[in-house]
Every structure is written in C-alpha cells, then in structure tokens.
Design a protein that fits this description.
It contains 3 helices and 10 strands. The model has no long low-confidence stretch (mean pLDDT 97). The strands form 2 sheets. The protein has a 6-stranded antiparallel β-sheet with strand order 1-10-3-8-6-5. The protein has a 4-stranded antiparallel β-sheet with strand order 2-9-4-7, covered by helices on one side. By secondary structure, the protein is α+β, with helices and mostly antiparallel strands.
C-alpha cells in the first residue's frame, strides 16, 4: 500500500480531501487528546453523506468499531472503519459545535467551531455543502449512563493513536480539529492532528 506524505490539520482548523474508491484516510492523534469531527460526502452527489442517524440504526450501536461500515443517509456503507489503534472510544451522538453552542456556554465573541471549519474546508477545495450533518466524532468521549444521561469527558486515546477509514465510493472527506476548550472533550487544550492518504 503506497502512502502520501503526512500532512497537518492545524489546531482549531479543518481540511477536506478527495478520496477515490479504494483509497484510505489515516488520521493520527498526534498529541493524544484531540477530537476530530469527521464527515464524508459522495463526490458525485453531495446530497449523500455519512449519517450518524442511519449508522446507529444500521449497526445497532452508538459506538462503531473497526471492521464495520460507516453508513450514509441512503443506508449503504460509503466508508469502511478499517483500523483503530485507540481504545475505540468515539461518539456518534453529539452535533458539531457552532456559534450557538458557544453562546450557550457564555461566549460573547466569535469562537472557532467545527461547523464553520467544515464550511471553510469545503470552500478551500471549491465546494459547498447544503447542510451540516452530525459528524463522526473520532476520539470524543461521551459516556452514556444507564439512565441515558451523557457527560463530556477527556479522550482516552494516546499520542500516536490512529484510525484508518477506507472509501467505498469516491468521497470528499472532511476533518475538523475540534476547537472546544470550555468542556473537557479535548482535555482543555485543542491541538493539531496529522493525516495521510493511503492507496
């Protein structure tokens, strides 16, 4: 398997990449405690995208694991969750942070956020998206209690952990280094991550 150079997603920023069917995206948690909001869109029809609602219904779990398909809003696997060297704690429940989320947390000025990172990353490659689907929150630790309660906790991943996501069709994949620093999801300190495209 050939590998491209290792590239950087700066802290608090997003990046979008084109993947052909059969190519994979390796996302590396460089410092160990960074959440990556992840989206994938069908290159040929952007109205088809990775959907957490459809994923949960198809897989029967809120915690996808390596070896399972990542499901689109047309109920098919558009990516394969091929590898995961972390403890496997990821989130499929929480929406991407946005200006409204930070306002609810008391921010009175603009705060970087994953929704805007998605839009900026798509614009940087000449694309847009008609909506912001709920992301696959890689390494986000949202424990769910027996009563259905949730909490915001620091990731359990370590430096150098990575996931590999394989495209089943041509997709645009988008990564956002979550800039959340008001709850513990990034251990209070958003950082960069790195990625490679694998053929």
């Amino acid at each position: 398997m050939s590998q491209s150079e290792i590239l950087n997603v700066p802290a608090r920023c997003g990046r979008a990449v084109h993947l052909k069917a059969g190519q994979s995206l390796k996302i590396i948690n460089t410092h160990g405690h960074q959440v990556v909001d992840f989206w994938a869109f069908n290159t040929e029809d952007m109205s088809e995208f990775l959907s957490m609602e459809h994923l949960r219904a198809t897989l029967g779990t809120i915690f996808p694991q390596a070896g399972q398909g990542l499901i689109s809003n047309r109920r098919r696997s558009i990516m394969d969750f091929a590898e995961d060297t972390s403890p496997g704690v990821h989130d499929t429940v929480m929406a991407a942070c946005d200006t409204h989320r930070y306002a609810s947390l008391g921010c009175t000025e603009y705060h970087d956020n994953c929704t805007d990172n998605l839009k900026a990353a798509m614009k940087a490659i000449g694309l847009g998206t008609p909506e912001v689907p709920s992301p696959f929150n890689i390494w986000m630790n949202i424990p769910v209690g027996p009563d259905g309660s949730t909490s915001w906790e620091a990731p359990v991943s370590k430096a150098g952990d990575y996931v590999v996501l394989k495209a089943m069709i041509d997709v645009v994949a988008v990564m956002s280094c979550c800039p959340q620093d008001l709850v513990p999801v990034n251990a209070g300190a958003p950082t960069e991550v790195h990625y490679q495209v694998l053929d």
